């Protein structure tokens, strides 16, 4: 296949998908203050068992090697979570992205079959409860402890990571959170930034053209704590760099997303329709899907010309850059991800993953980890 691009022809990389995020359900047992689902009008649902089996087979046959049980709901809240893990572990290196509230219930299963467990915790103080309505931090910590015990009885070492969204309210706690994460048995912390889904949350962001001045001071102290406690920190960017330097973690790693309703999206950012506040304006993220595995084999969806072309455009950075554009304040294209001023659809022109402001668990972030104590 050749792609017509910039007046010439481009030979795309047609290698298979290597990594995927599978959304088992968009339902959740919590109602966090910053949850994307608060700005949805989508119906919530979970993957039917027959679709789960088909999705796992399709992902395997398409060449996927690493599978994350993640998405915009809580995977452990899925009715068929046990079946999903049992079946998926036959074919994939498995990762789980979870709010951690149900870890105890599944500790043996998780300890034996899941390689990376990424638990979302924004704070180890009373702020945790404020941010994550309905959750108990003590229960989450107990769950992590039970996974470590189960793993140790099975002769395994679990790779537990904490995923933490940074915002104004929890920034100053970061150094002490690093200590707490280490005490909880985590080997690393993936830091990310907030995508505000309400106007009230918009004032909480730390990034932009002129990021919050406290960020670097706090990060410096957090790095020091991480060294002392043998913990790895994966940091995001905070400043919009002009024009270049964009890197899409999904497209660059041949990753994709299968949603609970079997639709296939290129990334988590575009896997649902929701509202967000960016640079002082509301915009609508529109779901982008290139097919459904209930209707077409995943291999065929992956090699659909429109999907291949989209990946080429992302890899080559063929999108304008809204975050540092002088027209951002009033441009009508900016209101949704449907189009941009270069005629792309969907558009990645203002994506925060593309600028590494926001990051999510991916193999390249968690696999090649060397703890500091391992260095000579
Ligand atoms: S745990 Fe995740 S999916 Fe559930 S409410 Fe919180 S942010 Fe949303
Ligand atoms: S879509 Fe609008 S805001 Fe974005 S780069 Fe183009 S003109 Fe600027
Ligand atoms: S750049 Fe952003 S919107 Fe575009 S594919 Fe990557 S994550 Fe999705």
Question: Describe it for me?
Answer:
With 376 residues, the protein is an alpha/beta fold. The chain has a single domain, classed as Aldolase class I (TIM Barrel, Alpha-Beta Barrel). 28% of the residues lie in helices and 17% in strands. It is built from 13 helices and 15 strands. The strands form 4 sheets. It has a 9-stranded mixed sheet. Strands 1-2 form a two-stranded antiparallel sheet. A two-stranded antiparallel ribbon has the order 4-8. Strand 12 and strand 13 form a beta hairpin. Helix 3 crosses helix 5. The radius of gyration is 20 Å and the shape is globular. The C terminus is likely disordered.
Write the layout of secondary structure elements.
Blueprint: E1 3-5, E2 8-10, E3 19-23, E4 31-32, H1 49-62, E5 66-70, H2 81-88, E6 93-98, H3 107-113, E7 116-120, H4 127-131, E8 132-133, H5 137-153, E9 159-166, H6 168-171, H7 174-183, E10 188-193, H8 199-202, H9 215-228, E11 232-234, H10 249-252, E12 255-258, E13 264-265, E14 274-278, E15 281-285, H11 298-302, H12 305-315, H13 363-366
Parallel strand pairs: 3-5, 3-12, 5-6, 6-7, 7-9, 9-10, 10-11
Antiparallel strand pairs: 1-2, 4-8, 12-13, 14-15
Helix pairs in contact: 3-5, 7-9
The structure holds iron/sulfur cluster (3 copies).
The site of one iron/sulfur cluster (SF4) has 10 residues, from β4.
Outline:
This protein is of the alpha/beta class and 376 residues long. Helix content is 28%, strand content 17%. A hairpin with a 2-residue loop joins strand 1 (3-5) and strand 2.
């Amino acid at each position: 296949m050749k792609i017509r691009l910039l007046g010439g022809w481009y030979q795309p990389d047609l290698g298979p998908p290597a990594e995927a995020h599978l959304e088992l359900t968009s339902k959740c047992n919590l109602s966090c203050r910053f949850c994307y689902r608060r700005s949805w009008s989508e119906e919530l649902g979970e993957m039917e068992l027959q679709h789960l089996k088909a999705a796992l087979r399709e992902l395997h046959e398409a060449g996927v090697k690493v599978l994350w049980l993640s998405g915009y709901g809580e995977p452990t809240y899925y009715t068929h979570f046990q079946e999903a893990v049992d079946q998926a572990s036959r074919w994939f290196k498995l990762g789980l992205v979870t709010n951690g509230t149900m870890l105890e219930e599944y500790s043996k299963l998780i300890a034996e079959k899941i390689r990376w467990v990424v638990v979302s915790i924004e704070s180890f103080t009373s702020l945790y409860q404020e941010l994550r309505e309905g959750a108990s931090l003590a229960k989450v910590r107990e769950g992590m402890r039970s996974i470590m015990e189960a793993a140790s009885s099975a002769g395994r070492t679990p790779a537990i990571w904490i995923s933490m969204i940074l915002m104004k309210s929890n920034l100053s706690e970061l150094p002490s959170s690093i200590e707490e994460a280490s005490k909880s048995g985590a080997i690393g912390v993936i830091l990310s930034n907030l995508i505000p889904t309400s106007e009230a949350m918009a004032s909480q962001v730390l990034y932009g053209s002129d990021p919050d001045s406290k960020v670097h001071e706090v990060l410096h102290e957090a790095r020091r704590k991480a060294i002392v406690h043998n913990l790895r920190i994966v940091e995001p960017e905070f400043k919009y760099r002009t024009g270049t330097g964009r890197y899409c973690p999904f497209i660059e790693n041949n990753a994709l997303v299968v949603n609970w309703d079997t639709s296939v999206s290129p990334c988590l950012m575009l896997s649902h329709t929701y509202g967000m506040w960016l640079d002082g304006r509301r915009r609508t993220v529109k779901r982008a899907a290139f097919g459904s595995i209930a209707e077409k084999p995943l291999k065929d969806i992956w090699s659909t010309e429109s999907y291949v072309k989209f990946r080429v455009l992302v890899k080559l950075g063929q999108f304008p850059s809204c975050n540092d554009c002088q027209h951002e304040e009033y441009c009508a294209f900016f209101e949704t991800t449907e189009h941009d001023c270069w005629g792309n659809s969907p558009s990645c022109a203002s994506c925060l993953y593309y600028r590494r402001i926001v990051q999510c668990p991916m193999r390249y972030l968690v696999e090649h980890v060397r703890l500091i104590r391992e260095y000579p």
